Amino acid sequence: MIPFDLVSLDLLVDIADAGTLTAGAVQGNMTPSAASQRIARLERSVGQPLFERLPRGIRLTEAGLVLATRARVIRRELKAAVGDLQALEALERGSVRLGSFPTASASFLSDALKDAHRTWPGIDITVRSALRPELLDMLDAGEIEMAILWDYDWTEETATSLTLAPLTVDETVLLVPAESALQDGVTVRSLGDEHWVTRNGGHPAAEILARSCAAAGIVPRIAYAAYDYQEVQAMVAARMGIAMVPRLAIATHRPDVRIVAFGPAENIPARRIHLAWPARRTPTPSMRALADVVTRAARLH
């Protein structure tokens, strides 16, 4: 394969367009001597002369015409590539594939996406909602480029192959019927006689309840195990019990339930929420822009 270099091909087009080596060298911002040396090396690489030297100027040989025609195409494509790269940097175009989990999507991510679509309408954003293990698998497989992830102190360590940017800490609160006598500053020990609504299937909310009650020396009486937080709200409203929930999970809640804060000394586990992407990957301009609006929205909630 002939080793071409872009500067020499660009110079070939300049000389062909200008009609003389000297004028072509000026267009290429080099001296006539440097231009002559480059063309000589190019001809040696090709193994054929590229110009006929005339008394007044030059004329392309057949080989020169073939190469100059192709070089013009390359020049146009490179200019188009520069334009595309500038558009990406200016956020006029681009794409991001993001992963999220339901409570993040229904709270701060919604605000972030509205901001992103309003500010950068040319960026194509797709979001896939999934559970934490699935999000980690999708990141590893390259199916998504970034993901909003949560963890607790006891959660298995996130793969060191990920870069994690903190977004927020989602505190755990108590959800009670609207008419309940319970007030802010409540202790877990004082709730020993209560019935509880929790999440089923090994959900982290069930783990929080179990750990918090164990630390307070009480055994929770589970009255209902729900599949989602809407169901949790409905069962609390129906007075089936009270519930420990992440605050983001009830950012919008029913009028017949209300939020009660635990006392500051209770040390109820809270989930940390991060934005993650593969450590091997340098974020694109579109990824950086989306990360900024997601971070801003998360800190406002």
From TrEMBL:
One of its GO terms (molecular function) is DNA-binding transcription factor activity. The keyword Transcription regulation applies. The keyword Ligase does not apply. Residues 4-61 form the HTH lysR-type domain. Keywords: DNA-binding, Transcription, Transcription regulation. One of its GO terms (cellular component) is protein-DNA complex. InterPro entries: LysR_HTH_N, LysR_subst-bd, WH-like_DNA-bd_sf, WH_DNA-bd_sf. Belongs to the LysR transcriptional regulatory family. This is LysR family transcriptional regulator. It comes from Microbacterium mangrovi.
